[in-house]
Amino acid sequence: MTKGPILVATDLSACCDRAVDRALALATQLGLPIDLLHVIESSGEANEENVARGRAAALLPDHPSCEVLVERGSVPETIARVAEERGSTLIVTGVARLNSLGDYFLGTAVDHVVRTADVPVLVVKQRPRKPYITLMIATDLSACSRKAVTTSGDMFPDAVLHLIHAFHTPFDAWPATEEMRDEVQEEAQRNLEAFADDTKIPEAVRSRVRPRLGNGETGHVVAEAIRETGADLVVLGTHSKSGFVHATIGSTAESLLSWLTVDTMMIREPT
After folding, report:
1. Model's pTM, two decimal places?
2. What pLDDT, on the 0 to 100 scale, is given for residue 219?
3. What is the pLDDT of residues 12-46, one digit of tens each?
4. Which residues of the chain form beta strands (DSSP E)?
5. Which of 8, 63, 117, 267 could connect to 23 by a Cys-Cys bridge, CB 3.0–4.6 Å?
6. CA distance linking residue 4 with residue 26, whole number of Å
7. What angle do CA 126, 219, 142 make, to 5 degrees?
8. Separation CA 39–CA 49 (nearest Å)
9. How far apart, in whole angstroms, are the C-alpha atoms of residue 209 and residue 1?
């Protein structure tokens, strides 16, 4: 894992406290410095930046290794740019603008950041109470999914990694024989186990992977797996720079972000 700072973006609202608190906890856990970024979208007087800087600094009491950054510009473009300039290991955001399923922050902004940033993007929804110890990684068994497994497993070396794969019995509208269903499930299970045993995934990560197979729509399978395992972090992979449109899990990441109640991390396949 790279050793750049954790970049946490905040609009200074109360809801973003959760993202800041999680970023602080991760900085301590991973032994990384932290950059706190606030982006001012409108043009204004220089004093506006000083006020914002003071408010942002107040969110980081007694932290030994942090820097407050105040920038002007488009929120998503600035987050991605600053992450690249600072060599960030991880981008952390909150859900301060979560008002509807068409929410700007979880749609346009995060979509842009995921498509352009070269590091994982963590969306914090829960108030942090403990380190991430149980991860749910949704997979379509692709190289992109392997990247998500490897990166998240490396980042959280003490966590259990539940690898969930959803499959469908073909021709659901037609009467499917029990034999057909069994054959489809057995093949899906073999493919999942082969993926989990892939030597391209480091042994230290593979040893903590727990494959799980679910029959049905991806969102339902993921939700059920979260309930059964008590996962405190969901990990999603995205292909190249195509963003949510081609998320690796069949259902779009943007859709899952709109209703998942646990923290969610997106990891993009490198170009």
Report:
1. 0.86
2. 82
3. 876 678 899 999 999 988 989 999 999 988 776 76
4. 6-9, 34-40, 66-72, 90-93, 121-123, 134-138, 160-167, 209-215, 233-238, 263-268
5. 8
6. 13
7. 100
8. 9
9. 18
